Amino acid sequence: MAGCPDLRRRRLNFMNWLFGIAAVVGVIATAEDLWRRRISNVVTGCAFCAGVCARTAIYGAEGALGAVLGALLGAAMFLVFYLAGGMGGGDIKLMGGFGAIVGNGQIVLAAVMAAILGALIALAYLGVAAGRRLAGPPGESRKTPALRKLAIPYAPAITLGVWLSFVPYLPFFD
Question: Which of 15, 119, 151, 172 has the most neighbouring CB atoms within 10 Å?
């Protein structure tokens, strides 16, 4: 690949398209999760369809298979968190949609990055919540907020994890 600049340029162009799709999906899903504390089926379904179509157009049948396997793998890796009650169904479907976009070869790195970033965001969120309770009026800190208020939006972490998974494909890593 290093001796063939045309192939490298084409690969970067394809990765730009895939990153562009991931960027649009990520911004929409993050905004929706922050605003509504949900990720709609429309967003996740469009992510899956866009991923399968793009990877098929770029890589042919092998790309379509990679997209479907990536979607299954992406959803499966976070399924345990959903079953334990620590993550919503929209997050699982979003990871599946991103799996279709990045494919089975890149989704594991994206999921690991999302898990690390999600843990850091959760720690920061809990730290801020604890600080607010301590700074509030006496007696208020003992009240437990509704479960919906305790939910931490995970789409930002998933999105950042997926975006960071594109870093190894940047030209200065060749």
Answer: 15
- The tokens for 141 are 């800190």
Per-domain boundaries in the chain: 5-173
Question: What are the C-alpha distances in Å from 40 to residues 17, 37, 56, 88, 120?
Answer: 23, 10, 25, 11, 25
Q: How far is CA 164 from CA 88, 150, 160, in A?
A: 22, 27, 6
Report pLDDT digits (tens) over 73-93. Answer: 999 999 998 999 888 999 999
Q: Which two tokens stand for residue 39?
A: 């990720």
Q: CB within 8 A of 110, min separation 6: which ones?
A: 74, 98, 99, 102, 161, 162, 164, 165
Whole-number Å distance between alpha carbons of 8 and 120: 35
Q: What is the pTM of this model?
A: 0.83
